[in-house]
C-alpha cells in the first residue's frame, strides 16, 4: 500500500514524516513540491500511475491568511483548483483523499462549539478558498475525509508558538488579542490522527473536526507559552480592533470533536498538555 503526501515540506507534512517514522509506517511517500505541484495535472497523473496510492494526504495549501487578501487568485488556485486536481485523480484511481481544512470556514459569531453541519460563512479569502476546496471534492469522489482543524503549531515551519517565543526573547512587552477564542492543535497530534484513520481502514467518509481538547484565546495561549517556557515578557491583552490585520478572523471558532471521537475512538490530548510536549521538544532543539 502506498500513501502519497502532498505539501510534504510544510508544517503538517513534516509532522507526518516524524510520526510515520515513530510508528514505523513505511508506506508514506513524501513528495517534494518540485515533483508534486498540485497545480500540475500532468505531474499528478504520472504520480498516480506510478504509485497507485490507496490514500492521498493533502497538506499542500496557501496558508498566508493576510497575504491571501491581496493574492486571491493564487490562494484560490492552490486551495480550490489544486484540491480539485487531487480529487479527480483520487476518483479515477479509487484513492481515499484526506484533505485538511480550517476553522476559518466559519464566521465565528456564535458561542457554542461548532459541529460539522453548522453553517459556514468564511470572513477571509483564505477561509473562502479553503471552503471552496471542501466543496469541490464530492464532485469527483465520495471516498474522502475532510479534517477541519485550527491554530496549528509544532516544532516545524512558522507558527504562533514559534513567533511568540521569538518575540518574547526580543521584546519587553507583547500585545495579544484576547477576544478571539479557539483551540490550538499540535500538528503532531493531527498527524497521529491522520495515520490512525488510515490504519483503521475506516470507510466512514465525510467531514470531521479535529483540534486539541479545551479552548483558549490567543492571549491566554501566549501567556501559557511564556509560563511553560519560563520566558519573562509582559503580555498585554488587547481587543481585535487594537490589532488591525488585512484578513478578518473568526471571534469564536471552537470546534466540537464528538463525531471524530465517536467514529474513531480517539483520545485527544488537552491543548495545554500538547503545548508542554511541543515546548519541551523545542527546548531540546535549541
Ligand atoms: N497552519 C495553521 O494554523 C492551520 C492550517 N490548516 C490547514 O492545514 C494544512 C497544513 O497546514 P500547514 O502545514 O500549517 O501549512 P504550511 O504553509 O506550513 O504548508 C503548506 C505547504 O504547501 C506547499 N504548497 C503550496 N502550494 C503548493 C502547490 N501548488 N503544490 C504543492 N505544494 C504546495 C507549501 O510550499 P511553499 O512553502 O513552498 O509555498 C507548503 O510547504 C493546510 O491545508 C492548512 O490550510 C488548518 C488550520 C490551521
Ligand atoms: C504576532 C501576534 C499575533 N496576534 C494575533 C493575530 C491573530 O488574531 C492571532 C494569530 O495570528 P497568526 O498570524 O499567528 O495566525 P493566523 O494566521 O491567524 O492563524 C490561522 O492560520 C490559518 C492558516 C488557519 O487555518 C487558522 O486556524 C489559524 O491558525 O494572534 C496578536 O494579537 N499579537 C501578536 O503579536
TrEMBL record:
Its EC number is 1.1.1.133. The keyword Thylakoid does not apply. Residues 1-282 form the RmlD-like substrate binding domain. SUPFAM superfamilies: NAD(P)-binding Rossmann-fold domains (SSF51735). The keyword Oxidoreductase applies. It holds the Pfam family RmlD_sub_bind. Gene3D superfamilies: NAD(P)-binding Rossmann-like Domain, UDP-galactose 4-epimerase, domain 1. Transmembrane segments: none annotated. It comes from the Bacteria. InterPro entries: dTDP_dehydrorham_reduct, NAD(P)-bd_dom_sf, RmlD-like-bd. It catalyses: dTDP-beta-L-rhamnose + NADP(+) = dTDP-4-dehydro-beta-L-rhamnose + NADPH + H(+). Keywords: NADP, Oxidoreductase. Pathway: Carbohydrate biosynthesis; dTDP-L-rhamnose biosynthesis. NCBIfam families: rmlD. Belongs to the dTDP-4-dehydrorhamnose reductase family. Catalyzes the reduction of dTDP-6-deoxy-L-lyxo-4-hexulose to yield dTDP-L-rhamnose. This is dTDP-4-dehydrorhamnose reductase. It comes from Hymenobacter saemangeumensis.
